[in-house]
Predict the 3D structure of the following.
Amino acid sequence: MRSGSDILNGPIEFEAIEPEKENIIPLKEGRSARGLAQALTLGSSELHDTRVQYERRLLEELEDMDDPLELFLEYISWINNAFPQGGTSKKSGMLDVIERCIMYFKDMETYKNDPRYLKVWLWYVELYSSDVLQESKDIFVYMFRKRIGAKLTLFYEEFATLLFQMEKFNEAHNILKLGVEENSRPQNRLLRKLNEFEVKLRELNVNFSQENAADTRFLSSDPNSFILGRRRASFTNNENNVNPQPQGHQQQASKYEVFQDNNIPDSNNSENINREGWDVLESKATRRKENKQHSLLLEPGSNVGTIEQTSDVIPNKRPSSSQKLAIFKDDLGRSDPVYKILHVPGKKPEKIDCNFDLIYPNPGEEYCIEEILAKSRDLYYRREPVKRAEYPKQDLQENKKKRKLAPLGEKIPLSGKKPLGEKKPTDDGLALVESHPLDKKSPGIFPQPSGPSSSERIDGSHSRADVEPPLEYKGVTRTSILPLRDTSDEMKTPVSNLKETPQPPKSPTMTFFSNAAMSEVYSMYNQHYNEPKEPFDNNETTNKFIFDNLTQEFTRQHMDDLTEIKPTDQSAGKDSEKTPNRQTNEITFGSDFNNEQQLYSNGAAKDFMTPIQERTEKTDHFSPNGKNINWTSQKDEISSTQSSPFLTQPQHEIREEEKYPILENPLDPHMRRQLLAGIRPPLDQYDTFYRYNQPLKMSTLLKRIQKMSKTENKNPIVDFKKTGDLYCIRTELGEGGYATVYLAESSTGNLRALKVEKPASIWEYYILKQVEERLREQSVLPSIINANSLHCFEDESYLVLNYASQGTILDLINLQKGKTRGPLDECLCMFFTVELMKIVESIHRVDILHGDLKPDNCMIRFENGSLGPYRPDGSLGWNKKGIYLIDFGRSFDMRLLPPNTKFKANWKTDQQDCLEMRSGKPWTYEADYYGLAGIIHAMLFGNFIESVQLPNGRFKLRQSFKRYWRQALWSSVFDVLLNSNEFGPFPITDQITKLRLEIESHLLDQFDDKLKEIVTDLELELTRFRR
Amino acid sequence: MSNSISLRGSTRTITEFFEYSINSILYQRGVYPQEDFTTIRKYGLTLLKTHDEELKAYIRRILAQVHKWLVGGKCNKLVLCIVDKDEGDKVEEWSFDVVQFSKLDQNQVELPQEVDDNETQNQIRSLIRQITASVTFLPELNNEGNYTFNVLAYTDANAKVPLEWSDSDNKPINNGETVQFKSFRTNDHQVGAQVSYRY
């Protein structure tokens, strides 16, 4: 120990503090250097002794002291000095002491406006809630209600500063003004602060003068009304009274109260108090684990009584779980936006930012936004039972019809019954149509049930004469299931009846798009929406079934009404678009499309369709496609899409546009067949190409057996007569868009991948053989999957490939995710990137475009063999490590096509397809560069690539690189790959090579040993992918 | 002659140190807004220096005079006071004692050995570090812009005082605390620093 006298007199040497300076938390009011120097020399036992001493004094003397706060302050300041690490450290026990202090004095009138006490509060806020502004605010609100510091300027200053930080400028301004009203002390300072604040607000262009009251609802617009003792007392009494449940925990009680008070519309003030902020301030520790505590405390069923009371305010069925209650109460402001995710099979889930629980509170019930609004303002539910129970839709329909027929109704009295009718058409109308006076008298109120029915009676005669047979809308209304529009029309109807000069119908079409017709349309959409749920097999019988179904619908609609057919047709057309097998639909499809065009030309129809947003989106999507089909049908060709196996006519169209030829349908099998027919030497001369002039009809069988054999352990055998090879199918490895890949064991015991395609396709075999041929003797060849042979039957083809057992890069990414929740190690990403670049460079050099680069098309190739430090040239065993590129089904041999040919994708694109493909522009090598970028992205980030367009037209990744990655390197890689068209004429192999060399040198410099370790470790793990 | 050169060199070092320490203190204690300062490298540290022309000129004027006094051996203490604008109270006092070895009684104190320039720089660096670290115990000077500063120079009675400097007496800070920092030496001077603050 240092000599005490030295420290007590004269300046403190900074050296005494310096070694600990990082451990000292600065205090607002500063620290005594002397105290610090002393504290730093004290041992823990001495600290303990002092603490015990203080605790004893708190226990024994506190109640007898004149100024008990003094003792607390002393204690707190001792802690501050003795624990320079700061009060937030657990060791200091500061939290406990402060909480005891503020709780002890919180109801003592003498201390409420003691600046020292207020400072303890502020200290508490600063120390324990400063990171959560909302929590700080809650504490301030609590203090405000308790009137702690209500007469002190400091309180208002601090509160306003906090609110200012939260950017609640109006509230902050209000708080300061409240302080002025309260005559808080020192008033001058507060006034000055208020002025400064207003200046600041003006600088920020915040309009603070208006809507003051609305913003400080949590304080109530009139603060005095509730913060005066009387109000507060009644409020606290209330809290005790409404808690009838004997087992109610105090905390629970206040929670219930929140709900109950919401039901009493008159007690606005107390409602506001209760709704926001805390009534009871609990210790920090309790607050923290609030939710957890509730789930333990609440017994099922114990709180049912209280919740029932809330049920008519909030119409949705909230599960009466305690968790919900807790969350509800904690909300100071609004809750998070509620959304709904729709899952439609075969589509991406759709998120709708709308509270579906409000719109569809119960099955079969639906409310529009206006209704919900009305309900929330208590204007709605009085009418609700009337409408739901006694007002069937047929009546509505009639009512609506009547509006249209009104001019007719007027003519009749004129001609026949009443001579005065000319002057008073209104009276005539009233006399005839009984519902009119009713409507007139109570325009705002819903028409009584008798009105419409009477109008129906009267209208009956007219409507018979109308274009629509009465039968029709009976049928229509029966199927209408969306009452959405009806309700809004109900509102309109009385109004339109009031207009004594009814407008003649604009056009006949208007009639048919009446409510019921519309809901009929909607209902049809709804039905079709569900249809994809039915499992489609490539089975002909199911297709026929669908076909029947469609025709039925058409015919039925034709009988009903011509105009109504349009929307149906459209949906049918859309439906057939989805149907995988085209043949059965061919004829209908063409005619559908014509109808659809009609529909588009019809402006009214288009208008009417807009209410459903999703629909319009789809039509937009559909129309370009439709145009294509139309174009082909003009040439009397059978409409079709890319992969139609039943195609009989040439489809391949190369249109000269600008400078380069564009291939519209790059995957078209017929075009491929034509191309392949022209190659020299012909395919049939290839060693491993076997053509059979017979159908095999195995693939469907395989599929079925495959499913069964999972349980029965019975493996099908494929026999290739020409080679005498027998392949025993072990399991299914994967299923692509056009083919299924099986793992097969040959008679010699080798494992092979068998890619079965139906209809037969020799394209991939050709590409693979070309790659093999053109890259002969090159080191990169082992990185591309090797086609052993192709057995091509009339109906299906069997491509025998080498089997890679170690899984794909996608598997690896997922494996890594499961292991560390993170993406791959950066240097492993670099390694794979280099490998991929090598492959892409070499195949591009020989004019092969892969066209479908993605993580699941890259198999990992870690062959056995010892490994030295990383060598990019493949030495030291590194040629045994790398990847296999597979799936050349979408590939192109550019040598077969005219130079500079571009493609247009006519398949459904997704995030992993390149930007040009997605936007429908022609593309070539971009596809591979973007695909490569996608793979690298997936490896680096562990998710699929997403890019954004910069203002200068370039693309960059949406996500940003990790701080510790080689950011410059990666950003240049992605810049080139995403904006490949800006780097000179395609292919930009030189650019890629440059990038690759850069990465290689990085790997060589920094990671050669690390990479070796990672790869060796991975090799062991990857064995689990072996099947 | 050589003595005179070394004296001037030493004085320049000290004046320079004053300049940087005054800037640092003004920045750290929030006497002037942060935006008025830019970072520079000095003494192997990143320090902050004002780019407000008016303030720069003011400091320069003070230090030019202090420099003259130092060369003449007339100044033995420089004090930077931070003053509350409203109340006029002194809140903090940073004082730098300057001891010129040649003026010491040769008999009482043994003359220190020579120090090389590097050593001086090292000492200055650790002193400035301490000044920077002093925020751990100094109170927060809230409401920024509410403070200003004064520079007092303690000179010999016979020193020439220009017109813009006026006599003043330094009041001690009431019930304050004082912390002594390290000191640094040149061949001719020793400079110590301490801060007194209200607590």
Notes: The mean pLDDT of chain A is 66. Chain A touches chain B at residues 10-15, 17-18, 21, 24-34, 36, 84 (CB under 8 Å).
